[in-house]
Amino acid sequence: MGYTDAVLERFRRLAHAAQPEDVPEAQGEAGERARGSCVQILVWQVPGERDGALARVRFRALGCPALLVAADLACERLEGCVPAALAAIEPRALHAELGLPVEKLGQVLLVEDAARRCLEVLRAEQDN
Amino acid sequence: MSAVTPIYLDHAASTPLAPEVISAMHAVLSDPALCANPSSTGHVAGRRAAALVARARAQIAGVVGAAPAQVIFTSGATESDNLAVLGVARGSAWRGRHVVSSKTEHRAVLDALDRLEHEGFSVTRLDPGPLGRITPDALADALREDTVLVSLMHVNNETGAINDIAALGAVCRQAGVPLHVDAAQSVGKLPLDLQSLAVDLLSINAHKVNGPKGVGALVLSPAARRRIEPLLFGGGQEGALRPGTLATHQVVGMAEALVLAAQRREREYRRLQGLRLAFWEALAAAGGVICNSPLDEHGSPWILNVSFEGVVGESLRLALEGVAVSGGSACNSASGEGSYVLRSLGRSDLLAESALRFSFGRDTDEGLLARATVDVFAALRRLRPIAPAEGAPAVVHRPGASG
């Protein structure tokens, strides 16, 4: 699989990978671990506000490099945004920015699904 | 791009040229007197080139226990596989239209079989046993009145599992069906003597044993020669079975590589058997590591296939910047499917996705494998913590949330 320099460089760092001890306020998951492709988006809000900005966004993932770097880039973009941004990821834009092979678009769509579910969980928690 | 030369553990994909091979090929390439077409035997320059080709053909035949006339040069094992499978099936179609093979063959055979099915042939693809080998009983059960060819590999290119081609050949000979063996991963590495084996067609190459890429051969019995049709047309070379001008330097390089490999075969077998076992034991210490290769005499010492729990092979391979290895498969993001070979052996999709193939060669030694082990452990320490824990709850904690 040929990856771009942008992918290789981001894969080396994966600066937004969660630490094992991280405990988020909410997380959303997509994909199937049993098939070797699943991703979680984890978020922490600025305290005290229902729509407070996402102070910290991290990911956990089991998958190919495309999934890992797409999740990493999505987390980077989401930090500092309002929670609604979790439902506004543009997978094709991420896919294009990273220069991923066309057959890897599905991996970026998984990241989109995980972020959307994360928002649903966050809202449900806030409504409780 | 790193300036550091990676630890090369991908010899089942290809190998560096041996210095002796470079010298032999260079001698041909640099001598203007050897530039002629080896088919141009009407002049002395052509006859010189033809003599080199004849010598190479005899050397290669000697390595596999065949007569020189049985060796047909091709562009590599893929072409040899295609020629054997398509050529014999098509040439025997008047007798029957059934072919037997296995699910773990190389794509060069599997895709040729798909082609035959499009042409109206029926194909039986045998499941391997737990060790990845095809049993003689399973083969015997699959043979039919209209079977015109059996195609089975000698050594599996992903796991290194060794088929007992002597026993499989005996089944075929009993039934009067020609056996084609893809020996791309075994020629020069395991004993191959066509005088004692009931093998009618043998696909071989050179670049897995420190020879040049772009050249191979199909070695075929006189009986198979009578049944095979060419795939290419346009000249009388190679008995009109594989027309095209022969590349003298390539066939000379192939012969040199195979002769060298045959001379070193037994010593290399013993050396790599020990190294492979020690490497496996070192990797196993990481925990969550599953060996997909037979580690006994049923596995090639040149190949070790390992699944690593908690990572996907493609990511592990990319994280191993200092080690050149192959994945068990290319990640198929649409289906999530891993290696078809490993899945045929009963491995889950996840384990098939998490496999790496380490393959060894002449330059592989204890020091290189120790360095590779360190790199693998470091990559696992980096990637495994990123993977979600199995069965993790969707919401773990929300500060201040009322219960």
Notes on the protein architecture:
The complex is a heterodimer of chains A (128) and B (403). By secondary structure, chain A is of the alpha+beta class. Chain A has one domain: Sufe protein. Chain: A, CATH 3.90.1010. Chain A is built from four helices and three strands. Chain A has helices spanning 5-13, 65-78, 91-98, 105-127; strands at residues 26-32, 37-45, 54-62. Chain A has a three-stranded antiparallel β-sheet. In chain A, a hairpin with a 4-residue loop joins strand 1 and strand 2. The longest helix of chain A is centred in the last third of the chain and has 23 residues, at 105-127. The mean pLDDT of chain A is 93. Chain B is an alpha/beta fold and 403 residues long. Chain B folds into two domains: 7-12 and 265-385, Aspartate Aminotransferase, domain 1 (Alpha-Beta Complex); 19-260, Type I PLP-dependent aspartate aminotransferase-like (Major domain) (Aspartate Aminotransferase, domain 2). Chain B has a seven-stranded mixed β-sheet with strand order 2-8-7-6-5-3-4, with helices on both faces. In chain B, strand 3 (98-102), helix 4 and strand 4 (122-126) form a beta-alpha-beta unit. Chain B is globular. Chains A and B meet through strand 1, strand 2, strand 3, helix 2 and helix 4 of A and helix 9 and helix 11 of B.
Structural class of chain A: alpha+beta
| SS summary, helix count of chain A | 4
CATH fold topology of chain A: Sufe protein. Chain: A
Strand order of the largest sheet of chain A: 1-2-3
What is the averaged pLDDT score of chain A? Answer: 93
| CATH architectural category of chain A | Alpha-Beta Complex
* Share in helix of chain A: 40-55%
- Please tell me how large the radius of gyration of chain A is: 14 Å
The domain tally of chain A reads 1
Main beta sheet of chain B: strand number and arrangement? 7 strands, mixed
Number of strands of chain A: 3
- Taking all residues together, what is the mean pLDDT of chain B? 92
State the end-to-end CA separation of chain B: 53 Å
By CATH's scheme, which homologous superfamily of the largest domain in chain B applies?
Answer: Type I PLP-dependent aspartate aminotransferase-like (Major domain)
CATH class of the largest domain in chain B: Alpha Beta
What percent of residues of chain A are in strands? 15-25%
Helical fraction of chain B: 25-40%
Largest beta sheet of chain A, briefly? 3 strands, antiparallel
